[in-house]
Write a structure and sequence with these properties.
The structure holds 2 protein chains of 2 kinds.
Chain A: H1 2-45, H2 48-52, H3 66-97, H4 100-115, H5 118-133, H6 138-162, H7 166-174, H8 179-190, H9 192-207, H10 234-242, H11 247-282
Chain B: H1 2-13, H2 16-24, H3 28-56, H4 58-64, E1 74-75, E2 80-81, H5 84-115, H6 118-133, H7 136-162, H8 177-201, H9 205-213, H10 218-229, H11 231-247, H12 250-255, H13 273-280, H14 287-323
The chains are: A mainly alpha, B mainly alpha.
Chain lengths: 283, 324
């Protein structure tokens, strides 16, 4: 009797544990499938034209995404220039200065902002810039992405500064350093690997954002000089080409997807190895 | 002993004017002002965001009132806007994606936290977190060209087994509520896995060991002791995933079919709040049209804020309990 029961329990054990293993295999397998398929489809669609040529009028063969590559770079640059300093400084405030009440209010609002869907951020940037200036522009796109970068930059900065042991701060202050000097020359350098990798992951996350750019940076068939005109960007270009009915545009969408994913994964892998090597030292 | 000796010396060296100057601009007060302003900026931005959504959606709110949420006519030419089909599509795709992703996600989290060796677990979690970093437009691309065609294989099976329920009836042309749900499930599963795994790993070792010592099998110890203990946190991860699914735009827009209707069958095309904003916002003509879309944005904002708040509360509640 007991032997039979334990056999049932043993087989339930084996089956259920096997199922959890299967779930993991499926999840990891999916990643390899996504990567492999993009490598295969995108890699074979890449050519020199992709990097050097402008898009051709709809229906014609060939052309490239040179303007979208530059456009994405400009939008991301602007987003980082606005978003990273604000997030970094606010993170320093939270980790080093804030009293608990202010800190919890700011942390709460930051999480709120972080949870806002990217399309809503797009509406926000639209009403701040496009609605007032009456035209779409590169800077509107940069602004939209910077709003997405701020909360992530803040939380990662706070997390890595908190990982710096208090004894280092006390040591610096005991030597007579002011608080700002302590932060600048002791705390920030101790956490620098984490801070850099946090900013890299942040950049990787917003580089794939499409929704906030749809009605801020819009799109452009041509080069977009300066900051005041609509611009093509890589993610928006993937979207427009993927839903178009032309095979040649589909091919280019795959190529652009390959480039985007390559960029995002490279940054992710670099940033994570940077932290895992430096993390043990800080903790 | 040394302290009383050094204080007068340093006071003597620093001239009085410099000390006033340095007290005013000691660096600390400036730094404080700068970092405080940066922190304040975040409050200002969030406040402005809510304010902009509220004021720019005013036209539609005043015209339609609460009926905006409960009518299903979407007629840009006639100037008549109702949000129900979009709310329906958003809620249905998110829920179905959870039904698909939660068992997989929690299962994989259990495996990674309880069974896999720490090294293998870390390596696989690393890979799964990479999956979470893949931009949504790329999931949309793969959705259109790979996953949706692949669903053509599964759909006849679903139809023959669950067709009587009505949710898998009617023709299947590819883009549909079901396709969007499957793509969403793939996108949110990594979140469920990595957060649930963290929560499971935080459960004290003694509990597992006590259960195993009493003769429980590995599975019984996990399912009857560890998982119930971490339940709140796992729910938190599910809420977090749900909030992400609700706001997800690009992948859904690319595979949902973009038809504003309330269909009984999951195989029929639908629409979602985020997708209609993405498709129509830049081409919306007239203030009322734009303001109706902005009000949709406000609805979406409200939904995700509530869910995110609930998720954070649940995760915090679990980790508090574990700390005690």
């Amino acid at each position: 009797m007991t032997g039979e029961l334990s056999l049932r329990r043993k087989s339930v054990n084996l089956v259920m544990l096997g199922l959890t293993g299967l779930c993991t295999v499926v999840a990891v397998g999916l990643l390899f499938f996504v990567l492999g398929y993009l490598l295969y489809q995108g890699g074979s669609s890449l050519n020199l034209d992709f990097f050097t040529k402008l898009p051709v009028p709809t229906g014609e063969m060939g052309g490239g995404m040179a303007n979208a590559l530059i456009g994405s770079a400009k939008v991301l640059l602007l987003a980082s220039v606005i978003g990273v300093p604000i997030g970094l400084l606010a993170g320093i405030y939270l980790a080093e200065w804030a009293n608990p009440t202010y800190a919890s209010v700011i942390r709460f609002v930051t999480d709120l902002l972080n949870g806002v869907p990217s399309i809503v951020i797009g509406i926000f940037a639209y009403s701040l810039t496009v609605l007032k200036a009456k035209h779409f522009s590169t800077y509107a796109g940069g602004l939209a992405l910077s709003v997405m970068m701020i909360p992530i930059a803040l939380r990662s900065t706070e997390e890595f500064l908190r990982a710096v042991p208090n004894s280092m701060r006390e040591g610096a202050m005991a030597l007579g350093a002011t608080k700002s000097r302590t932060i600048l020359t002791v705390v920030v350098p101790a956490a620098i690997r984490g801070l850099i990798s946090g900013m890299m992951l942040n950049l990787a996350r917003v580089s794939g954002e499409t929704a906030p750019l749809l009605f801020t940076a819009l799109n452009n068939q041509f080069w977009s000089p300066g900051w005041n005109q609509p611009t093509a960007t890589l993610p928006v270009q993937i979207f427009t080409y993927a839903i178009s009915p032309y095979d040649d545009l589909h091919r280019q969408a795959w190529a652009a997807g390959f480039m985007l994913l390559f960029f995002v994964l490279m940054i992710n892998i670099t940033a994570r190895t940077l932290v895992s090597r430096g993390g043990t030292k800080a903790r | 002993m040394a302290t009383p000796a050094t204080t007068p010396v340093s006071q003597a060296r620093v001239p009085a004017r410099a000390s006033a100057f340095s007290r005013l601009f000691s660096g600390d007060s400036i730094t404080y002002a700068v970092v405080f302003l940066a922190a304040l900026t975040i409050l200002v931005i969030t406040g402005m965001l809510v304010l902009q959504l509220w004021t720019n959606g005013a036209l539609s709110r005043e015209k339609f009132g609460l009926s905006f949420l409960f009518t299903s006519k979407w007629d840009p030419q006639g100037g008549d806007f109702g949000a129900l089909p979009f709310i329906f599509g958003t809620v249905v795709t998110s829920m179905v994606s959870l039904i698909i992703a939660v068992p997989f996600g929690v299962g994989a989290a259990i495996f990674l936290a309880e069974l896999a060796s720490p090294k293998a677990s870390d390596a696989m979690t690393f890979l799964i977190e990479l999956l979470a970093a893949v931009p949504s437009v790329i999931f949309g691309l793969i959705g259109i060209f790979v996953m949706v065609p692949a669903l053509n294989v599964i759909v006849p099976f679903l139809r023959s087994h669950f067709g009587t329920l009505g949710i898998f009836s009617g023709p299947f042309y590819g883009p549909s509520l079901f396709s969007a749900s499957v793509v969403l499930a793939v996108m949110i599963a990594p979140f469920i896995i990595s957060v649930s795994r963290e929560v499971l790993l935080a459960v004290p070792r003694d509990l597992r060991e006590a259960a195993l010592a009493l003769g429980a099998t590995r599975w019984e110890a996990t399912w009857q002791i560890v998982v119930p203990y971490a339940k709140t946190g796992i729910f938190g991860s599910v809420f977090l995933a749900l909030a992400r699914a609700l706001g997800e735009t690009m992948a859904v827009t690319m595979v949902v079919g973009n038809t504003p209707q309330i269909a009984k069958s999951l195989l029929a095309p639908g629409y979602s709040i985020a997708a209609v904003i993405a498709n129509e916002f830049s081409e919306a003509t007239g203030d009322l049209y734009t303001s109706a879309l902005i009000e949709l944005g406000l609805v979406l904002f409200g939904l995700t804020i509530i869910l995110n708040g609930a998720a954070r509360f649940l995760i915090a509640a679990t980790s508090d309990r574990i700390k005690k």
